[in-house]
Amino acid sequence: MLLPIAGLFSVLSLVHAAPQLKLGKTTLVGRDITELKLDFFGGIPYAEPPLGNLRLRPPVLKTSLDSKSFDASNFGKGCLQPSSSVTEFSEDCLTINVYRPTGTKSNAKLPVLFWTYGGGFQDGEASIYNASAIVAQSVARGTPLIYVNYNYRLGPLGFPQGKEADERGALNLALKDQLTALEWVQANIETFGGDKKKVTVFGESAGAIMTAVLFLNSPIERLARAAARQSLAASIFVLFNAERREVDWQNFVSGVPSCASLATSGHTFDCLRKANSTEMFTGVVTAISDAPEEFGFDPTIDGPGGLFPDIASRLLKKGHFARLPFIAGTNLDEGTLFTPTTGNFTSDDIRETIIANFSPPLVAESVLTSTADKILELYPDIPALGSPFNTGNETFGLPSGFKRQAAIMGDINFHGQRRSWIQTAASAGVKTFGYLFTQPQLFNAPSLGVSHGSEVFFVYGAPPDTSAPALLLSSLMIDYWVSFATSLDPNDGHGLPRPEWPQYTTSNEVLLQLNGLNTTVIPDDFRKEQIAFINSDPAVYHQRRTLKRRKLN
């Protein structure tokens, strides 16, 4: 998920002569970003519009455009999501965008960065990510690359829930959108000057989760050669069970006026395929607003032969994961954004939260209860030990237990999972690099600290804080990411002088701390006993429910 950033990334500007290229029999007319010497081609359909009979079905790869010329000078609309206007977004949203250095020839064979955005699986769009800084810096450092991003279906249209969706094979449609976008890259990126054999997939939060799921059991190894996963979450422990979320699906259907009477019938798809997009928009808004959980629509276990065939921890234990190099990291205070600011945060309150979040348990209820008790023992109510970390006894006007619960939730849902994944991969000989982002966020509420989503601005060259340390860190992070995408090593010797980022191995479990005043190597041993306990019995954490998070001013 991404903090609201629309408008912070600058719009494409400084238009000059429009670049053109042939995609099949169609001439794409893009946009020239003159000052940065970049070409942009956007809004290109990569799949047939998922409307009418194609609604709630897997995407159909778009193999040709139906015109001699196509205006690719702007992004396409994002997929349906909660909004104040039904026309702001569209169901006809499966489009892809390409940034490349100006003058790139079709035989250039440039590496490709392929981005999947976050947004809690229910909001977000490609257009808010301006990759100009990434591509321009790749050229300046002598290792040019191409950047690609795309839209995928969201909420109930991207992640249908319930028994009917399961029986109709309609689970995880957004994951299939992601795969189809990657298939489009394989089929077409050479036309833009890219190398289809050198694709690095990267994403943040929901985007990192989707990418991680593909790494568990899918054809990802023929579609990409590496990955970078920012704020990797929910890929190790959590079981998403579609039938458990029957009510979420019923809420969605009840919000579609012409189908509302069928909401509890178990036979809704045929009606939904006949509804118009305005009705679907109403249903999406209803489903998201009425969801009892923060994330009611997300990746779902889809059984043998599916994209998410089994509990992730079982697949990892069996070695069922792609042996591709990757970067994986988290932000210092991942749990603060997902901890409500209201409540007393007593031990009983936090125990109830843990039990509620992971119920009904796949283990005996007594095991879940004893686990909650042990976690409370390992995370005492001492503000100096809580999150935001490194803030001493400051409680920001909140009960001291807020910092305790934020630390627990951050470790269960983010830090513990990143550590488990990277340790498992390293032990299998996979080339991995880990990081911890600790750059102070001057424009965050103090109680958020270095919160979830904070690093995205820096990866895109747009830190809200424009101080010299922040700008330097942003440039360093782009260098590391570009270096990894082009050479499978963040230490290629090009670009700015920067600390060596050691590979994470079983004999050298270290992270790169990303901080404008102190980017340095640190041991991956923070809260070692606590996270080891969390990772010791992943079955406890399969049934996750996330309470509605705080509303930010």
Automatic annotation (TrEMBL):
Q: Which family does it belong to?
A: Belongs to the type-B carboxylesterase/lipase family.
Organism of derivation:
Pholiota conissans
Question: Which EC number(s) does the record attach to this protein?
Answer: 3.1.1.-
Keyword annotations for this protein, in alphabetical order, are: Hydrolase, Signal
SUPFAM superfamilies from the entry? Answer: alpha/beta-Hydrolases
Q: Where is the signal peptide?
A: 1-17
Question: InterPro entries of this UniProt entry?
Answer: AB_hydrolase_fold (IPR029058), CarbesteraseB (IPR002018), Carboxylesterase_B_AS (IPR019826), Carboxylesterase_B_CS (IPR019819), Type-B_Carboxylest/Lipase (IPR050309)
Q: What class of enzyme is it?
A: hydrolase
Q: Does the keyword Magnesium apply?
A: no
Picking any one GO molecular function of the record gives: hydrolase activity
- Lineage top rank: taxon: Eukaryota
Q: Can you tell me which residues the record assigns to a coiled coil?
A: none
Q: Which Pfam families match?
A: COesterase (PF00135)
What is the name of this protein?
Carboxylic ester hydrolase
Q: Which residues form the Carboxylesterase type B domain?
A: 34-533
